[in-house]
């Protein structure tokens, strides 16, 4: 089963009558239904509850054990999952995208799979090949969701390189890229030739296994970009940790040599720049200038960054300088400088320079829209805005409402495809130290109502009641799991209160037997 998460992106452009600042007073919320707003308020309060933030994964595992995967999943779909995710099937996603298009918005899909820098080393290439297949399907789905591209002909998709190449290899390459003078063996042109020709690439400082993995990784990257180009899908390579980013930028530069030439209608491969890093402005200025001198198209997704705590902790443990900006204000200033730099490049280079203003910050969006008007960037210019769905809808909806074009044309970058995984708490998988789970005998199951297909409408009603209790009662404690379980039993499944014990001891026809 495929699941699609999404982000929102709205393309804005100067109004012929003068610049009108976007209105972020929340008026755009009239486009949402009462149920959506109630769920959003509930999720906001839940995500602001410190115990849930701190112990979220443990609570999810606890929920699966007590409620069962089906009921636990239904609860998530009616609350947090439904707030941030487009759907579980292609049909659900298609319906969501059609709704977004009426609001002047488009989706951007992604495969949110990556390796953490300290993760265990994968054995063989099977995991990466599986991710490759998921990405190729994601390209096809991105194309299928928007059969008629916007006026700029753009469909966007996010790409995680560490889903196709190991973090250990990226770290090893980074250690050489950072050396003075770099290594000629790692020039973007040489890597591009290896990807294009398919010939073996031997790097002297890598061992045989690492060289083999590098060659396989380059092949996977080439296949994804080649397929995306054929489907008219532009790929936005995501930035990650500073220990990996130099290698990621090197690989993007190699892909750009092959796919971002003006004759290809590029840029088909974009890079992501994180404004919360101290060196981002200089790197962005250097890379933009290098692309200009090489006659290559240049695509940028500009973000603030998402790994602040880990970057600072890693710098502390290694005794190195903190690579991040000292505070929030410094990050805002960095983002503003990078944004101004890129807006001027777009105004100067036109359609060969593309920019996504990926920000939830209202002031950054105002700055971008105002400067677009002042620089006379055309209505169909290559600038778009991106926000995560459910995170900053008042900004996304306001941009969509302010779209002066006769038909919706924003691009949608959204995170994307997740391969389904086996339920870790299914009866066939017993965790160490956990009592084995056995099926009830048929005679025992006859006394229980059928819970194979929960009533989702009734479940959503329970979530609303549960949410109101959460909002109104100051001392949460264990009140809400109990109230929700009781409401679900009575309203949705028609159970008697005494049947609640079955719900709390495994559900779905299972019981716990202690040996």
TrEMBL record:
Assigned EC number: 1.5.5.2
Every Proline dehydrogenase domain range: 197-400
Family membership: Belongs to the proline oxidase family.
Keyword set includes Flavoprotein: yes
Function, in words: Converts proline to delta-1-pyrroline-5-carboxylate.
Necessary cofactors: FAD
GO function terms (MF aspect): proline dehydrogenase activity
Biological process annotations from GO: L-proline catabolic process
Pfam families registered for this protein in UniProt: Pro_dh
Stored PANTHER family: HYDROXYPROLINE DEHYDROGENASE, PROLINE OXIDASE
Region feature (Disordered): 405-449
Protein name: Proline dehydrogenase
Catalytic activity: L-proline + a quinone = (S)-1-pyrroline-5-carboxylate + a quinol + H(+); trans-4-hydroxy-L-proline + a quinone = (3R,5S)-1-pyrroline-3-hydroxy-5-carboxylate + a quinol + H(+)
Keywords: FAD, Flavoprotein, Oxidoreductase, Proline metabolism
Keyword Repressor (UniProt): no
